[in-house]
Amino acid sequence: MVKLVFMLCLLITLGGCSAGKILDITTSSGGASVTRSIAYGKDKRQTLDIYVPKNVRSAPVAVFFYGGTWQSGDKATYAFVASALAAKGIVTIVPDYRLYPAVRYPAFIQDGAAVVRWARDHAETYGGDPEKIYVVGHSAGAYIAAMLALDRQWLGQQNLNPAHDLKGFIGISGPYDFLPFDDKIVADIFSPAKSQEATQPVNQVRHGNPSVLLLHGQSDTVVYPSNSIALEKKLRAVGSPVEIKLYPNVGHVGIIGAMGSPIRFIAPTLHDTANFILGIRNQNGS
Question: N vs C: which end of the chain shows fewer Cβ within 10 Å?
Fold first, then answer.
């Protein structure tokens, strides 16, 4: 089992489809139907897959953005995440979005906003409730989700407002406070920004944010837990509803891999994400 976990984590880290296929095969969708590669824009990367649970009406909708340092990723690799959430009764959308070097900041955030617009316009067609849309992301995808939830200009470009059009934001191992840009490629990705400070989710916190759940592994050495801790502190300071869960002995890859049924013992990522979306709280309020 230890060898299986290691290999799955290694493959996901490398962006390998093999790991996604293994987790997809072993992760039940509960009989959800899947419609693939629906266009939400004109670029070949601007398509999404939607996973619809059986016999749902007015179900919550999760829009999941995968990571890859804004440079790589494929929605097919994360079918296991969508299947796991769909099995919980959540309509789940996984989009591709434009990547560096074809684009730079803020194109990937604008793509995310376009996906939320699509979700608002089409949720009912697929049994979802347009009033219960959650943006969810891992790593660079959590950054995209955070900016959609906190910086109102991006959804504003789609005539939406995160305070009214998002029910919540779930960030899994996200970079929210990562200045200065020590990596040359990351610096180039964000080079079009007029203000580096404005690119940071921690600097976009204000009153009226949607509810937030932050999940992070304490052993994450790719995106340090201090990112989630800093964002939680900022949100709490303005009175925004926020929960944070730090998982001991969990790294950057394991926390998302734990969505797949073979390695769910690593972390309760699925349990905590699904319960937040479904409005289930533990007796202690967490």
Answer: N
